[in-house]
Amino acid sequence: MAFRLSNMLSGKVAVVTGATRGIGKGIALQLGEAGATVYITGRTLQPTGKGTSLMECAEEIEKRGGKCIPVQCDHEKDDNIKALFDRIEREQNGHLDILVNNAYKAVTGIFENEKKSFWQQDPGFWDEVNNVGLRNHYICSVYAARLMVPQKKGLIVNISSPGGLRYLFNVAYGIGKAACDRMAADCAHELRKHNVAFISLWPGAVKTEFVADLLTKSPESKSAKVFAHTETVEFSGKTIAHLAADPNIMQKSGRTLFTCLLAEEYGFTDIDGQVPLNFRTVKDLLSMRGHTWLAAWTPAFLKIPGWLLAATTHKF
Question: Which residues participate in catalysis according to the annotation?
């Protein structure tokens, strides 16, 4: 069920939080390329020489034929978040189709604390991980829903990760991602009668600017090995563009979805033409663990069911 990406979101209005770099920037680029008017947020508005500002992202979106509105916003400040959605309501006559909750503050902190257990970390590390990466997502979703519910349509996406299912990086990270997944499920329950979808999206390992630098400087680190098989930063953007164009999106509302499986369903590849490894496919799991000879003999259709993944990671 592949859609033509060009202009498939024409007339749509989207918000992508945390779009100065990484996955957020990749999502914004793809939504803009698909025809949406994209509001992008972040703390860095003007170029700093590092290629990670809102204005540089906006310029790239416009070069691809998209329309972008950069908004400087500190997602730790409630008044900044409210001002963002007040502006959208004012400028778009209350119209909003897509919200992508991607803003995240703790990437550097996660890698700096990777060898510390939770009791060895400063208690404030919890806030560094979850103020923007969780609390802010909820606040943005509140304001987005106030625009989407009256129009009886819309899509909200939380960018999450498999860290919500089993231990990854640290305790605060896993709790935050599990909460993002639960937020999508519970908000979807209340939004369903209003025809507004809420989804939690799991990208695979993504080669962001920060990760690329890490792989260069510390190729043997524990965290670096997680990113041995990566998606580009735009793969999630292609996924969300297809979700937003899907007329049957409400069938997916409330679910936690994998970028790699959605690519298979909708029939698209990454921007480099590759299909990222799928950690639910037995063949790809064997490849990731270095069992290449066994992977070569394993059928590609063998997948681990989602319920089995969940069952193996929780004890009751």
Answer: 173
